[in-house]
Amino acid sequence: MSLVGAEDEPFLGSLPTPIKRAALARVKRDLFFSLLLLIVSFSLHCTTVLTAAQPYVTMISMGCTFIIGILNHYVYIHLRKHTPWKLIARPFLRPREYGMFEADQPAALMHFEKIHMWMLILEKNILYPLTVISCVSVSSRSIFSLSPILIPIIGFRLLRSAMAVPHQIYDPLGFSFIISFVDVHTFSPLPLPKGCTLLDLLPYIWYLLAVIYPKWEELSLKLHFVMAYMAPWQITWGSAFHAFAQPFSVPHTMVITVQTVVSSLLSAPLNPFLGSSFITTSYVRPVKFWEKDYNTERSDASNTRLAAQLEKGPMLDDSNLNAVFYEHLTRSLQSVIAGDILMGRWGASVEPGDCFILASFYLNCLVHIVEVGNGYVTFQLRGLEFRGTYCHQREVEAISEDVSEGGGCCCCNPGSLPGLLSLNTAWGLRWTAWEVTTHKYIVDGYSITDNSAISLLQVHELRRLLVTLYSKCIIYHTLSSPNLPKWMENEQITAMIEGIDKVPRYVDVDHLFCTSNDEDYDTDQGGISRQSFLRLYSPWIDHCIKRLTKYNQSDDASTVHRLTTLLYSLSLLGRRALGQASFNRHSSAAESFLYGLHSLFKGDFRISSSRDDWVFADMEMLQSVIAPSVRMALKLHQDHFTVSDDLDDARSLFYLIRRHQESLFISHEHDPAWRSAIMANVPSLLALRHMYDDGQDDYKIIMLNKMNLNMRVIKLNRECVRAFWSGQQQELVFLRNRNPERGSIQNARQVLRNMINSSADQPVGYPIYVSPLTTSFLETHPQYESIVGPPLTVQRVSSSLRSFFSRFRAHFGMNGSNSLSATSAVLSHRLKGEAAQGTVYTKESGEEGGGVQMEQSVVQLTGEGARVSIVKSAVIPPS
Fold first, then answer.
1. Strand partners of residue 515
2. Paired residues of 710 in beta bridges
3. Which of 62, 367, 550, 849 is the most exposed place for a label (fewest CB within 10 A)?
4. What one-character-per-residue DSSP string does 330-348 give?
5. Does 845 fall in a domain?
6. Given this model, what pLDDT does residue 573 score?
């Protein structure tokens, strides 16, 4: 049974099928909502609400919008952070999984998340459109000559910002409210034309502040980065040049401050010269940027030569194999990241250019937010090495430590107040360019377990057990193969079977067989005989024949005898291939055995004995019997340490193999099917990896289990990321410093310098995986419809209107005075349905074959008054 089927097909393209459906649904919904907003806007302007009730409508709408903005984008976000306001030890609004070691289910939908989503819907779809319309209506007079052109453009710009990044516009809204409605009674900061007030300039003031606010925010982030990076009590000198440059940077503090202001106006990143504390201004770069050419292409059996696959030695770097886990994480994030950010599960407001680090036990990746819109997020994921350098590990420890355990206060340790952070911890959190926003973020992924195979096969008894399980798996896969009847009728295979059956005491004598590996080795005969093979495996053969074939032991005795000979020959062929691949490969018996096992595991079968030439009659035997048997035997050998009693029982072993076939995918990691299985969310996977680690060969058994990963979300200062990436580009590309141990990439815990630099584009950085630009839509989140219901489209609205009109018509009839029309309509509808089914009509008294009489009152208005007439009608049933 193949675990990689049609389910994986939608994920093979550049745009998954669920994303395409979500994009089309968004287009339909946006068209309908735009039309609805247009109608509402014209309807409001047709009334006197926006003219007679001014300026109170504008004041109320702006005040409500500002208050909702503070609750949505400041209070709620800080209540969900891991350390609210960098002062509280635990978040106030905690998810269900906060106290769990491992989440056994996806993230639960909390009540405060539902409330927050509905408040966002209220803010975006009602308050902001109403506020913009009222502000534009207030300033409808032509103050300037270009006012008729500027006002619509300003309104469109404000609405777009309100839909995409509302957290960037509620502060300018509050300041413009203060300037327009408070300062107007005290003084006018600007010279105004005659007859013009600040209220007439409200949209212009709001727009101007909305343009200035991002620059102010950028300046704040850059100053925060400079102070955190240059603080003398936490400076880390990566080289002697850093120690030399540190004293000279202190007198230039004012120059650095001026450069920071200028770079904020130009949106140019700062540039730590050679990674030191001497900071300059780099050239202007766009805020929205991404890697154009993805240099992290995977290599597997589909794009490498066959000779390179067979002769390939141990890998010095397993980054290419680990990149597939980041690819799977990218697809998992694609379906949920837009919804999780809006629900506040990342504990931060997100805007274009932001960078986050997602950290778990193995996976550490940088998520670069490229674009944020109304219900969608475009991001790029950069996966870091699994086993990083010393500097990488020190920074991983910094973002993983529990800050709530600290109790220091200056030079003493008095502890902290209940529920609060200690003074030293709160002080230290304010002097870092990063912040842990979410302690446990649940995302769909794989847990990765790697065990050394050498320790599992060091003992002779364990290697003998593996060979025994290998033979049993050969028997199982042979009898379960649909090609078994064809093999039994093949001439070459039949000749081989008859040649063995002619010798009553047939023995295969080969120097590759020995007592240390083969449990059925006959020491008297010096080889593996047919009788010794049957003594050990006959119970297993009988059970498999009974469960997998239609042969009967008593009726088809000759066929079963020939089938047993075929199983005996296939077992010898498989063991001989294993022995030939591992013969004299290493001085250690365990390493030689593992070398041969790995060769067969990746499909490298080399038939060198003339006694096995019969297998060339159908090479499908190697792929459908020998290859899966090697892989299944390795998994059963692992199960031996937990369910050793079940492997001796034929029924238990048969059930265990069947269960692994249904839920476990075993393959070599360079097989393209391995990646397809991961992308198809197969529950469990297993592989054998050959690595060259610490100066010696190492074989690792890689076991993957699908689960809900617990990840930490760390928000980086985006100006810190831009500064380090621009500095590395200058140092490597322009200054030609290719020293792998250069000081600019050494660890700096306060800014995560090593992790940021290693995630940059190649050749500046060295990420093992860089995803293409990936867009996540809110509609693909599995919990979205449970909050807001199905999407609002033209088809759904039209069907609802038709249903309402039909019920309305059935209730009131064609004229409003008919009191029995509803009963008549329902009764006639029921009679028509019964007539179609051929049932018998009855009167109310229960007599069969009768008709049904109905009375209907008709009211006619005449000059003399109203006249009521009774109309009787009878429904005659069909004969």
1. none
2. 442
3. 550
4. HHHHHHHHHHHHHHTTTSS
5. yes
6. 93
- The verdict on 582 and 467 lying in the same domain is yes
Residue type, 473: C
**Cα separation, 563 vs 569, whole angstroms:** 10
For the chain, the maximum distance between any two Cα atoms, rounded to a whole number of angstroms, is 127
pLDDT given for residue 434 in this prediction: 95
Integer Cα distance of 10 and 468 in angstroms: 41
Tokens of residue 809, six digits: 């018509």
732 φ, ψ (degrees, to nearest 5): -85, -40
Calpha distance 637→643 (Å, rounded)? 10
Q: pLDDT tens across 264-291, in order? A: 999 999 988 887 778 889 888 887 777 6
- Rounded CA gap, 816 and 814, in Å? 7
Dihedral, CA of residue 734, residue 736, residue 738 and residue 744, to nearest 10: -50
* Rounded distance between C-alpha atoms, residue 662 and residue 658, angstroms: 6
| Tens digits of residue pLDDT in 829-871 | 454 554 444 444 444 444 444 454 555 555 555 555 555 555 5
Judgement on whether residues 657 and 715 belong to the same structural domain of the protein: no
Residue 742: Cβ within 10 Å count: 18
* CA–CA distance, 337 with 365 (Å, rounded to integer): 15
Per DSSP, helices labelled H in 552-610 are 557-582, 589-601
- The structure tokens listed for 265 are 């106006």
Alpha-carbon distance of 576 to 587, in angstroms, equals 20
* One domain for residues 410 and 368: yes
Q: Is residue 243 part of a domain?
A: no
436 is a domain residue: yes
Instruction: Quote the domain boundaries for residue 557.
Output: 451-703
Least confident of 97-111, 200-214, 694-708: 694-708
- Distance between CA 157 and CA 207 in Å, rounded? 8
Tell me the per-residue pLDDT of 761-774, one tens digit each, with 9 for 90 and over. 888 888 889 998 99
Asked if 260 and 270 touch (Cβ cutoff 8 Å), the reply is yes
Tell me the Cα Rg of the chain. 38
Q: What are the structure tokens assigned to 175, written together?
A: 């300041």
Is-contact 436 83, C-beta < 8 A?
A: yes
Angstrom distance (rounded) from CA 507 to CA 529: 4
Are 634 and 701 within 8 A, CB to CB?
yes
- Whether residue 333 sits in one domain with residue 393: yes
Contact 663, 684 (CB under 8 A): yes
Asked if the structure places residue 8 within a domain, the reply is no
Query: Given this model, what pLDDT does residue 469 score?
Result: 94
Note the pLDDT of residue 289: 74
Token reading at 159: 């609405």
Please give the Cα distance from 821 to 42 (Å, whole number).
39
Do residues 542 and 493 share a domain?
Answer: yes
Q: How many Å separate Cα 372 from the centre of its chain?
A: 17
- DSSP class of residue 511 equals T
pTM metric for this prediction: 0.84
Q: How confident is the model over 167-213, as pLDDT tens digits?
A: 999 999 999 988 887 765 555 555 666 666 677 788 888 999 999 99
How much of the chain, in percent, has pLDDT values that exceed 90? 38
Q: Which of 511, 519, 523 has its CA nearest to residue 460?
A: 519
Mean pLDDT for the chain?
Answer: 82
The CA-atom distances, in angstroms, between 613 and each of 50, 378, 609, 760 are 93, 57, 7, 54
Bridge partners of residue 379, in order along the sequence: 369, 774
Helix/strand/coil percent split, the chain, to 5:
50, 15, 35
443 with 708: CB under 8 angstroms?
Answer: yes
Given this model, what pLDDT does residue 191 score? 64
Same domain for 440 and 457, yes or no, is no
End-to-end CA distance of the chain: 59
